[in-house]
């Protein structure tokens, strides 16, 4: 079969057209791949950002419950009183413990005002308001036992020196009752002041009988240390 020049030139033009169409198709495919990669990268960045936000939010909502939290709160109240008046007595210690309980309780209630918020233990498990109040009650019990022990040991030392009689079992019971009375009194004060947004401050409440405070006041210079 003979092939003339015009047939050959047509074949080249058609080939060029086919090559251009192929290149255009490749360009489109490359563009699609780039767009797909960009979309994938954007999605991964978005997912990482959301994961980071969730981690930060969880850290922000993780509540640490150090064993000394209650004692630190009470010590801070008494330190402020010492700076203001130069000293404090056992009645102030009892009041400071009651105030500490009410302050920490108010912080717990404030945390859970928004029902949409969730809080967590340090290990990542969900923390509830009931968990926190249970922890606070435990800390208060431990503080009360500590204060009873401090008072009893200090009184024994003073009795050994002949400065006073030892605390009796009844005195110790009265002291324990005083701490729980203080807690109830400051919680009552907290609930009464909550609607108006009033601040909780240290009061001069007196709890227990005079005999108990005669014993405690007899600790003299120890009153600024036995906390």
Question: What is the H-and-E element order?
Answer: HHHEEHHH
User: Average pLDDT value?
Assistant: 76
The separation of the N and C termini measures: 117 Å
Helix content: over 70%
> Number of helical runs?
6
Large-scale geometry: rod-shaped
Beta strand count: 2
The whole-angstrom Rg is: 37 Å
What proportion strand?
A: under 5%
The largest sheet has its strands arranged as 1-2
Structural category is: mainly alpha
Specify the biggest β-sheet: 2 strands, antiparallel
Spans where pLDDT lies below 50 across 5 or more residues = 8-12, 54-61, 220-227
Description:
- With 227 residues, this protein is mainly alpha-helical.
- The protein contains 6 helices and 2 strands.
- The chain has helices at residues 5-60, 69-85, 90-111, 129-160, 169-193, 210-217, and strands at residues 119-120, 126-127.
- A two-stranded antiparallel ribbon has the order 1-2.
- Helix 3 (90-111) packs across helix 5 and helix 4 packs antiparallel against helix 5 (169-193).
- It is rod-shaped and about 115 Å long.
- Residues 8-12, 54-61 and 220-227 have low confidence and may be disordered.
Features of this protein?
mainly alpha; 2% strand; two-stranded antiparallel ribbon; 227 residues
Give the SSE layout.
Elements: H1 5-60, H2 69-85, H3 90-111, E1 119-120, E2 126-127, H4 129-160, H5 169-193, H6 210-217
Antiparallel strand pairs: 1-2
């Amino acid at each position: 079969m003979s092939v003339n020049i015009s047939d050959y030139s047509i074949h080249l033009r058609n080939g060029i057209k086919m090559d251009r169409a192929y290149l255009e198709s490749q360009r489109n495919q490359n563009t699609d791949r780039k767009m797909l990669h960009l979309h994938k990268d954007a999605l991964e960045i978005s997912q990482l950002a959301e994961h980071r936000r969730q981690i930060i939010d969880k850290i922000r909502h993780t509540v640490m419950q150090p064993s000394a939290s209650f004692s630190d709160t009470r010590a801070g109240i008494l330190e402020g009183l010492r700076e203001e008046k130069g000293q404090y007595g056992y009645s102030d210690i009892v009041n400071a413990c009651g105030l500490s309980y009410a302050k920490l309780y108010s912080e717990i209630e404030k945390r859970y005002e928004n029902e949409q918020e969730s809080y967590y233990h340090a290990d990542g498990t969900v923390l509830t308001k009931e968990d926190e109040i249970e922890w606070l009650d435990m800390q208060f019990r431990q503080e009360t036992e500590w204060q009873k022990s401090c008072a009893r040991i200090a009184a024994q030392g003073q009795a050994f020196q002949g400065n006073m009689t030892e605390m009796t079992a009844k005195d110790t019971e009265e002291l324990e009752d005083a701490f729980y009375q203080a807690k109830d009194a400051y919680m009552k004060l907290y609930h009464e002041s909550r609607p108006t947004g009033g601040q909780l401050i240290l009061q001069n409440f007196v709890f227990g009988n005079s005999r108990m405070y005669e014993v405690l006041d007899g600790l003299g210079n120890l009153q600024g240390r036995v906390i």
